Amino acid sequence: MLQNKKEIDKISPAGLVESEKKFVMGLKEYLKKQKDKLNVEVYLLRNYPFSGVGFQLQWSTFYPDFIMWIIKEDKKIIVFADPKGLEHTKDLDDEKIQFAKEIKNIENNLKKDNLIKDNLILESFIFSITPYNELIKGRTNPPSKEEYITHHVLFAEDEDWASKLFSSLGIGN
User: Fold this and answer.
1) Contact, 163 vs 30, CB < 8 A?
2) pLDDT value of position 115
3) Both ends of the chain: CA-CA distance in Å?
């Protein structure tokens, strides 16, 4: 039986930071607007830091903040999403950005070993709250915004970031 309690003892994992809130609210708004057009089921899970689903990268273990399941007909897509500022992660060769390529290698190996079916697709995206112009400030010959997007970095400053996400997954516009 629930008791009427005025204080919360503990939230686990901790409450959402601003970048995570923007991601969740933007995703919710997009799905609400597109519900009749997309015809998908979407499930979003908050990943536990340091004990949830993690991937060993060269320099550290990467625990994406969210795991999103998208089901469209017989296609199942699992997206590892990490909303964050990129002020310390400026280059496209950063491990967390390169993870978008690595997850495809993991997917291919799992399929080759018959550990997952062909209709399961794995993807990874970084959702940057750092605006593109701030990210490239002071750099000579920086990558274009489109190159970042191609490497699965989406920018919160773009109102259509969720549309870009679903389009890159082959769902929607």
Assistant:
1) yes
2) 81
3) 47
SS3 (DSSP) at 68:
strand
pLDDT digits (tens, 9 = 90+) for 21-56: 889 999 999 999 998 888 899 999 887 766 667 666
* Mean pLDDT, range 105-109, rounded to an integer: 88
Mean pLDDT over 132-141 rounds to 87
Quote the CA–CA distance of 132 and 105 in Å, as a whole number.
28
**Tokens 């959402």, residue?**
16
E strand spans, the chain: 41-46, 55-56, 61-62, 66-72, 75-84, 120-128, 153-155
With CA atoms as reference, report the closest residue to 49 among 17, 93, 87: 17
pTM, two decimals, is 0.82
Inter-residue contact 150 to 164 (CB < 8 Å): no
Token code pair at residue 134: 């701030």
CB proximity list for 137: less than 8 A, separation 6 or greater: none
C-alpha separations of 44 from 1, 47, 50, 68, 69 in Å: 28, 9, 18, 4, 6
Distance CA 117, CA 110 (A): 9
Kindly report which listed range (113-117, 142-146, 150-154) carries the lowest average pLDDT score: 113-117
Nearest CA-CA partner of 68 in 169, 173, 170? 169
Cα separation, 146 vs 165, whole angstroms: 13
